[in-house]
Amino acid sequence: MTETIAAASDRPNEAPEAEALNGDIAKLRDAVLEKLTYSVGKDRNAASERDWFIAVALAVRDRMVDNWMTSVRGNYRDNRRRVYYLSLEFLIGRLLVDSLTNLGIVEPMRAALASLDVDLEKLRDIEPDAALGNGGLGRLAACFMESMATLSIAAHGYGIRYDHGLFRQTIADGWQHEFPEDWLEFGNPWEFPRPEVSYMIGFGGAVESIPRNSHPAHVWHPSETVEAVAYDTPVVGWRGKHVNTLRLWSARAPDPLKLDVFNSGDYVGALADQVRAESISKILYPSDSTPAGLELRLRQEYFFASASLQDLIRRHLEQHGDIELLADKVAIQLNDTHPSIGVAELMRLLVDVHGVDWDRAWEITVATFSYTNHTLLPEALETWPAPLMERLLPRHMQIIFLINAKHLDGLRAKGMEDAGKLSAVSLIDEHGGRHVRMGHLAFLGSHKVNGVSGLHSELVKQTVFRDLHEIFPDRICNVTNGVTFRRWLYEANPHLTKLLVETLGRGFLDDASQLQKLEPFADDLDFQARWAAAKQLNKEHLASVVADRLLIKINPNALFDVQIKRMHEYKRQLLNILDTIALYNEIRAQPMRDMAPRVKIFAGKAAASYQQAKLIIKLANDVARVVNNDPTVRDQLKVVFLPNYNVSLAEAIIPAADLSEQISTAGMEASGTGNMKMALNGALTIGTLDGANVEIREKVGSENIFIFGLKADEVAARRARGIDARETIAASPQLREVLESIADGVFSHDDRHRYQGLVDAITYHDYFLVTADFDSYRAAQAAVARRWRDRKSWQRSAILNTARTAWFSSDRAIAEYADQIWNVPVSRPKD
Ligand code: F58
């Protein structure tokens, strides 16, 4: 991919003195050459671009190490409470420009490399994305790691070092295909393997009860043991001062092979244990919609939760020597329920291993943990079959039963007798075979539970945790998500950043709230022109990416209408496709009508097993083929589906977006973070009152956003009335025409009935209310088109979006976690 070629002067977020700069250039050049020679083992003349990339990354990593050591020493010296962010996903993307930016050496490095005839932008493109996550939840964890370092919080991230991250998506004949991703193929220059830091993780076996004076002691004898080995990646904050650690675990078999079996000639059998053990960190959970690979998933969750807890307890005891002090010195954030088996594991470690009495152990556990909920979707709320858990983690099952018994006994003692209520708050779901409710376990084991937007947190109280919220009314709070501006504005959009620095000075780089000083420029025509010029450069760049990848020419003067996110029915890419078809019908009906040209841009992956989402990808591609090849359409409408959406592609698309599609069924998108990234980069949002869109509207003002559709309570009421959409469709001639054209095979000549099922589904069973919101969405899109024609007014709104979205910085979000949940201090980097 050809990334933005930003000239030196386009990187304004650093301006060291010229002399220092020259000194630095020489030092960086020497450092890179040294790495190339002694670490990569290549001569300058023989080095490939990949060799140069590795050499540069190693030289940059060296620059972090001193401050890393200082940060680690400072964390020990200051005795501060540490924060541990446990997440099965860290969707990091590339690190080269990110690290250079935060260290403030993009330009010196660019110059150093230029003096060696090497182009930094080419090296940037060589780096594979670290795609250790599915979507928003994983990317949030990566943004949070950067902000925790920026705010000098003594924080560690813990996760799994998957050999293979999120699959690579190709589109062939419009259909999605999945291929394994191989980010470690050429090694990972950012990480430090720590083979000496490893923990034994048990599975299966039996629990022995040994009688003691008061209570019996429990000894778990696992039947299988897997070793968790640490790999550390330094995470550097803005201005490079504070550096934290992301520690990812890799699974190893304690014995590499069974020698006797090997010697007997059974080579495959000899390696069987190793393969089974290592499968734990082999691949990122492939599905976000089906309970695939159930047992492997539970093994992954326990593996990383146990390794992380053992590691942090070791560190705590080394530093403080007293397990009783754990909650004073440690805060653990559970990123969704995936690490929530950690609640039972911490109880096991405290009670069985460290001899803490049960009630005190529970106090410590609850004071230590907090939990973030990211979804209300019932299929994404984890429950584990009790028999599976009993077999894989017998001691944990006992502990969960005991936590539950004490919890329910306590409620009965307080007079709660209603069996329905008790069963609703039980850790065990007795319907349809016993299941352990991991959300409930995370809730009970935490002192704070947060949702990720104002609306979502309220819905968490009213729906998934309604009954628990009644019992613990102070436990649920809200921390609206945020995104790191370093990656999503300064690095992704150097043209806009340069304009902002020239206009506002450099203060906003450290303190995003200063972006509001942009407001007075919203009506300044000269500023508007410069603003438009920056946007235009980004659009031209995206047009070149589209041309390279799809051989489709798009017009950079058209309105870029962007929907980029995981493919899911609730996100309603289908609604956007229906709008596209309606637009197409309008153009065909009046080919000579003068309309504002639009490019509909889609990108996103569907879970491999999610057939309906894959069919929607196919439909988008079928519509694209028909529309793009119809001569009557001319340049007025183009449709593109960019394959293999990932962090790097997002960095190319977001700065170029004019319109940001955030059109989920209200009440279903917990927050969204793409909505924040695009608004920050001056796109106007078309969206429902869902997730953080609600807060984006509050901040940017309702005249600078296009809101449509049913609200969350109206969605609930509508569903209660029934979701047969025949009447709705009958009442909307435009919608009828669109659906008929799809069902008739206008976009699928090769297989006329391909979409019959899809059309039937939304006709008779429109759970996501695509049809109910169609007319109001069309009206909002018409309002978008009118505003776009009044370019000054559009520009004004776009500028105000950037000026008013500073609040969506992940620095703000992390400061709220630090204050409301973790009780740790923060400090902001200064020049
Ligand atoms: C996302 N969840 C939410 N889950 O959908 C989004 O609204 C929110 O902004 C974001 O979290 C951050 O809070 C999400 O990305 C997953 O990817 C899960 C991965 C594991 C399986 C189930 C889905």
TrEMBL record:
Recorded GO MF terms: glycogen phosphorylase activity; pyridoxal phosphate binding
SUPFAM superfamilies: UDP-Glycosyltransferase/glycogen phosphorylase
Pfam families: Phosphorylase
Any one of the GO CC terms: cytoplasm
PROSITE patterns registered for this protein in UniProt: PHOSPHORYLASE
Key word Ribonucleoprotein present: no
Cofactor(s) in the UniProt record: pyridoxal 5'-phosphate
Catalytic activity: [(1->4)-alpha-D-glucosyl](n) + phosphate = [(1->4)-alpha-D-glucosyl](n-1) + alpha-D-glucose 1-phosphate
Assigned keywords, A-Z: Allosteric enzyme, Carbohydrate metabolism, Glycosyltransferase, Pyridoxal phosphate, Transferase
Task of the protein: Allosteric enzyme that catalyzes the rate-limiting step in glycogen catabolism, the phosphorolytic cleavage of glycogen to produce glucose-1-phosphate, and plays a central role in maintaining cellular and organismal glucose homeostasis. Phosphorylase is an important allosteric enzyme in carbohydrate metabolism. Enzymes from different sources differ in their regulatory mechanisms and in their natural substrates. However, all known phosphorylases share catalytic and structural properties.
Family from the record: Belongs to the glycogen phosphorylase family.
Protein name: Alpha-1,4 glucan phosphorylase
Lineage: Bacteria, Pseudomonadati, Pseudomonadota, Alphaproteobacteria, Hyphomicrobiales
